[in-house]
Each structure stands twice: as C-alpha cells, then as structure tokens.
Amino acid sequence: RSRDVLGQPARMLSSGAHGPEVFSEMWATLRAGRPFHAVLVNRRCDGTHYHHEMSIRPFVEDGKVTHFVSTGQDVSEHRRALQQLTDRAHHDCLTGLPNRHLFLDRLQQALARANRRASPCCLLLLDLDAFKAVNDQHGHAAGDRLLQAMASTTGKVMRLTVRRQGHGVPLATLQFVEIGGSDGSGALPLAEAQPS
User: Is 66 helix (H, G, I), strand (E, B) or coil?
Assistant: First the structure.
C-alpha cells in the first residue's frame, strides 16, 4: 500500500542479500552522473523477497547531481521461468540427474581440482543388472521408479554428480564423480545403500 512506503527510505526494501560493494558501485555510478541498472533481490512489506529489475537515473544541474528518478518492475516470475528452463536444459526430466553436458562440465571441474591439488580423482561406472528384465516383466513405470530410487539413494549417501547414460538398456548406467575419498572408498557405502 502506498501509505506504507511513501516518505520511507529505500533501505526499507533491503533484503540483506547483497553486500556493501553492490551499493558502493551504485552510488559511485550515480554520483558520476551515470544511470545505474541492476536486478536486485529486495524485500516486500510482508517480508518476502522478490527480484527487482531497476533503473536509477541521476539528474544533473550545473554539474551537480540534484535528484534521482528510479523505475523498476518485479521480474521474479521471469527469473523463476529462466531457472526452470536452465534446470531442464541441464538435468534429466525423470531422475533430476545432470545430463551429458552438465556431467562433463562437473567432471572437468573435478579433474582440474585434482590436478591443482595433485590428488587422485575417482570415476565410478555403475550398472543395474537385469534392468531390461525389470522393464519387460514389471513395465516401464516400475523401471522408472527404480531409476528414481537409485538416483535418490546415491544423492543421500554422499556428495557426487550422477548422470543417466541413455535410453533402453544403457538407461540404467549411472556415472559418479567425487565418490567419498579420492581412493574410491566411498563406493562401498554407496553399493550397500542401493535398493535390492
């Protein structure tokens, strides 16, 4: 409501999501007489956060900034939609596991980190035995549930990156990066935790 905000300082909208460097840059830009554009996470009067796309324009008279005019809009829904598209572009829709592109990116990061630290990196290939028989005897819905359970279990046991390999029989092939210790010792608790 307008009466809740009229006459109040702009900091009442601050969410605390941004460090002081963001506002230092904003004020340096405005005091130099240049417009400032950004998307900030602000706080509504009810305390919820939203993405605020804003433009602030300084007005200069006789070489001095006299006042500012700010315009903006709530772009939270747009940001959410973009995040969903990004997630879909990088993750398998059935299991939520990273797809080939994201998996290879994570693998490159793991290898680079291992190289910097001069420590080994472990890559484990896991195959579900007789997965085709599960699909044939119990239907694809049962096979999908098995894959989802497998993906969920691996995520709970340890921090790793898992990827679904493909469709048909290879659908059950999962790959892992950063399994427990660099010696692969995390593979044992992972194997013991899998649904039988």
Answer: strand
